[in-house]
Sequence to fold (207 residues):
Amino acid sequence: MRFTLYLFILLLPFCAWAQNEHSIIQVNGVVLSSDSSRTLPDITILIKNKDRGTYSSEWGVFTIVCEKGDTLQFRCLGYRPKDIIIPKNAGGSFFSLTQTMVQDTFYLPETIVRPLPNKDYFNYAFLHWKINSDKYEIARQNNNMLRLRAMSYTLARDGNERQHLQQNIITKQLEYQGQQQPMNIFSPLKWGEFYEAWKRGDFKKKD
Fold:
């Protein structure tokens, strides 16, 4: 009797593991739009009450491993949420699913359009009214290369740039360690630049 009890205790975890393994199923499917039957990418598929999920590929195909009886939640901005329960009596280890999503309706606030009094008023408004830029225009202006280049000359240097500059100064000093550094007053090139500037009249007093 005692031996039978020990054997039952030893086989109990194995039976539970075998039963749990039998309930695991791989769900393969595709997500389609209900109005046009086109595949929908980036649809989030979550297992309810479990911290696991996936999303559909660019062709609308997805695959996920769950347990029989789990609820799959399909979520995407612009479409109504949908929950699907995997049947507990599903046979085998694979389950195929074709899920359609219904596009949700957006209600925007009303906009009242009124005509201008006359043509002259339109010309004045076209020339003098200042219309605020939208987010796309602001983003385009912020990424303008000329503006970014101008900002790079005015912004303070960060730690990496200051460290790089200091290392260059130290390296330049080590090149002339133990000897006098050259001076521009003895440089023929600098004297040539000075002579050309003097001929152009750069040093003349300007009114």
User: Anything to note?
Assistant: Residues 119-186 form one domain. The two ends are 120 Å apart (CA to CA). The longest helix spans residues 2-23.
